[in-house]
Write a structure and sequence with these properties.
alpha/beta, six-stranded parallel β-sheet
């Protein structure tokens, strides 16, 4: 059973999101006017990346101060508490290391048992954590990044899946969800997608219906964009956007 949950912005977060949107839109317009759309791809992709980060964890954005608990993380922890108390387990997927770290901190604070899988976990530790998760008698959470949600994982202990950000490629999202749909799964699986209302994330959902390869790279693996490497990845994301496309994603008419 799949559900999409639309979450309203918290006031401070909404202010940050709007400031980022207006500031970057001004930069994009100026750059397009001077250099043209073709040479403005990096700045447009960077702007979209920052807005997506603002939807999940504003504090992970360079030079942004945000001391509140992001709504997505508050809701996630609340849901996970109930799941663990009932003896069930869950997979949690995020594309951003900054969000990953905030979720891990929140789970520790609430003493929710969890395991971490990300790109820097060694093969041996990865296997140990997967085995420990599967064999744990009580409920637990497996917190994972996009890279670690690929093929070859059998996580039938989980009967809940949370996608903290929308993924552009539905096949990749389904592939991650399918970690629970393996031989040996005996329970119904609940899948939840978190989307911030009136944000670029809603536009991403609309774009999933467009058969255009130009958007594929916009929402690919952004795991490297975190506290240790906040300005990485946009230049590697490819894609080809027009100013009209960009303003549509920002919700600007």
């Amino acid at each position: 059973t799949e559900s999409t949950l639309r979450i309203p912005f918290e006031p401070a977060q909404a202010k940050i999101y709007r400031e980022i949107a207006l500031s970057w839109n001004k930069k994009v317009r100026e750059t397009v006017q001077i250099e043209g759309e073709g040479k403005s791809q990096l700045i447009m992709l960077t702007a979209l990346l920052r807005l997506r980060q603002a939807c999940s964890s504003p504090a992970s954005i360079p030079n942004v101060e945000y001391k509140e608990t992001p709504p997505k993380i508050s809701l996630l922890v609340e849901n996970l508490k109930s799941i663990i108390e009932s003896g069930e387990s869950a997979l949690v997927f995020t594309q951003f290391i900054g969000t990953f770290d905030l979720i891990a901190q929140a789970l520790k604070k609430e003493t929710i048992p969890f395991f971490e899988l990300h790109g820097k976990v060694s093969r041996k530790d990865r296997e140990d954590r997967l085995r420990s998760f599967q064999e744990m008698s009580a409920g637990a959470v497996m917190l994972m990044t996009l890279k670690t949600g690929g093929v070859g994982l059998n996580l039938t202990k989980a009967s809940y899946v949370f996608h903290i950000e929308p993924w552009w490629n539905p096949a990749v999202e389904n592939q991650a969800t399918d970690r629970t749909h393996r031989i040996g799964q005996t329970k119904p699986v609940q899948v939840y997608r978190y989307i911030m209302s009136e944000s670029v994330e809603e536009k991403i959902e609309l774009l999933k219906t467009r058969k255009s390869a130009q958007f594929d790279a916009l929402f690919s693996d952004t795991e490297s964009v975190g506290p240790a490497n906040k300005d990485a990845a946009p230049e590697q994301m490819g894609g080809s956007l027009t100013q009209k496309d960009f303003e549509m994603l920002l919700g600007i008419q």
